[in-house]
Amino acid sequence: MLPLSTPTHAAAGRATGRLLTGRRTLLAGSVAASALALAGCSRGTAAAAGEDLGALTVNQNWIRTTEFAGEYFADSRGYYVEAGFSDVTLVPGGPSGTSSEAMVLSDSALVGMTTPLAAGSMVAEEEAPLVLIGAKFQRNPFTIYSTAQNPISSPADLVGKRIGVATGTNEVLFSSLLQVHGIDPADVEKVTVQFDPQPLMNGEVDGQIGTLTNEAVTVALAGIDVVNLPFAENGLPFVSGAFVTTRENIEEHRAELLAFLTAEVRGWKDALADPEESARLAYEVYGKDQGLDPEKETRQARAQNELVVSDETAASGLLTISDELAQKNVELLALAGHEVDASTFFDPTLLQDVFEAQPDLASA
């Protein structure tokens, strides 16, 4: 599924488990175009033309599905190489994977993918030096999905219902949703479930937390008329698929981060333009061992593209987290009991540098 965070799928800080690496050894001689453009960035320390930035390791926070289409395009079409990297490893996550936060804090990855809630909780509680430098999904995909026969289409409909909630971060989000709408938790029956939508399909619960791009699609493909209560439209407008790194990396490896973001923007522009290819790269190439359903992956690609774009990305470029959106995320973190400073938790300057150096990347 599109993960809430690595703590949802694999407890934050877990440093063991499978690291399914799918390493691609790429030719260093292909370096140039993006690095050359980045060399003139106003905040400096970008790669010089022809400079080899060495190996890039990126931690993804779920198994290989269409969720990571932008990364698949950036890898398969050589955008990471053109940006300056000679070797690329995309590390998938999942229930037994290592969290992005743990990976970047241990220098096992330059950057990882997460949510503000996952990283922000570590910043607030452990003073972890984590920073978010962009986000794939301007609107998170999380939802309470139900059926048309027993619909939950507004927060008020939650009262008296049985709601399936997976343990971990999903519990925090559910609590936050109730709090935002002034609903007494005692008025809703919370049922512990896994991520599989079968409890809803079996009638064991009336609604279940999942994503618009995964579980809700699975239920619809089973021929069930699905009703959604999207979190982003009901008081919890946090970003998702956020890129997390450390303050030290921003200071000492800015060139690599600029190159990474350049390749990411290019990859996600391609994903927006061709959702069918996004899906194919998942089920035929990168996730071919996952037994993915082509129709579901294609639907996911189309659905997630709607979450990638916004008025902000149209004005400022893909992956951008505006100051206003960052502040909303900080307020939601505070609601969950995690106090962070937006000015240090979010750093928009890297993407600003990328788009200043390459204005064409900022265009739709």
Descriptive notes:
The chain is of the alpha/beta class. The chain contains 18 helices and eleven strands. Helix 7 (169-180) links the parallel strand 7 and strand 8 (189-193). Helix 3 packs across helix 12 (275-286). The longest helix has 20 residues, at 254-273.
Output the keywords.
single chain; 364 residues; alpha/beta; five-stranded mixed sheet; 18 helices; 42% helix; disordered N terminus
The class by helix and strand makeup works out as alpha/beta
Order of helices and strands: HEHEHHEHEHEEEHEHEHEEHHHHHHHHH
Task: Classify the helix fraction into a percent range.
Answer: 40-55%
Q: What's the overall average pLDDT, rounded? A: 88
Strand content: 15-25%
The number of E-state strands comes to 11
Number of contiguous helices: 18
Strands of the widest sheet, in order across it, are 1-3-2-4-11-5
Low-confidence stretches: 1-46
Using only C-alpha atoms, the radius of gyration works out to 20 Å
Overall 3D form:
globular
For the termini, the CA-CA separation is 27 Å
Largest sheet: 6 strands, mixed
